[in-house]
Write a structure and sequence with these properties.
Distance between the termini: 36 Å
Number of helices: 4
Number of domains: 2
Order of helices and strands: EHEHEHH
Helix content: 55-70%
Strand content: 5-15%
Strand order of the largest sheet: 1-3-2
Shape: elongated
Length: 178
């Protein structure tokens, strides 16, 4: 700490950014952020914020074309958020429909139960209400799978377009760094 540097290297000021990325997305984020002048800070990766699944990046404060790079970076981050929303939308609608069908089946089963416990028991009504009740309990799984697969086909094309846009943005950022 008290040692004085005399090797003649000039001072370089850095700005830092932490991105929450773990797993297979970490390499994607690192590749893309390098197009905007960011590099991984190896010193910060050993502990601290990186242990929580984040990546610490740094870049020179006096980088050329900083305003344009920041604009492109914001556009990139907006595209990544859209990709995340598209990924989430694959199952949202299917989940809602599966839950609604399951609740409807439960309502029919409740009606069937009330018909049986009625004095005198209404056996025919109980059977008539139990059939759609059991169907309402069995169908949600298959309905979910079908709707999720259908939405995944639509979303995959949209995600491919969004990734193409992301790569174009990164290419523009990389040209500005050269």
């Amino acid at each position: 700490m008290s040692e004085i540097r005399r090797d003649g290297t000039p001072f370089v000021g850095y700005e830092y950014k932490e991105i929450p990325a773990a797993g297979e997305k970490a390499a994607f984020y690192l590749d893309c952020y390098e197009s905007f002048g960011w590099t991984a800070d190896e010193r910060a990766q050993g502990g601290g914020p990186a242990s929580k699944g984040g990546i610490v990046l740094r870049r020179e404060r006096k980088i050329m074309n900083k305003m344009e790079l920041t604009r492109l970076q914001r556009h990139f981050e907006a595209c990544v958020d859209e990709v995340k929303a598209l990924e989430k939308s694959k199952t949202t609608n299917a989940t809602i429909w599966a839950i609604l069908v399951g609740l409807t089946g439960t309502a029919f089963m409740a009606g069937s139960t009330f018909a049986v416990v009625h004095a005198p028991p209404l056996w025919v009504l109980s059977i008539v209400l139990a059939v759609p009740g059991f169907a309402g309990w069995a169908l949600p799984y298959f309905l979910y799978k079908k709707l999720a697969a259908k939405r995944a086909r639509v979303v995959s094309e949209l995600m491919d377009r969004k990734y193409d846009e992301i790569y174009e943005i990164c290419e523009q950022g990389n040209k500005l760094l050269s």
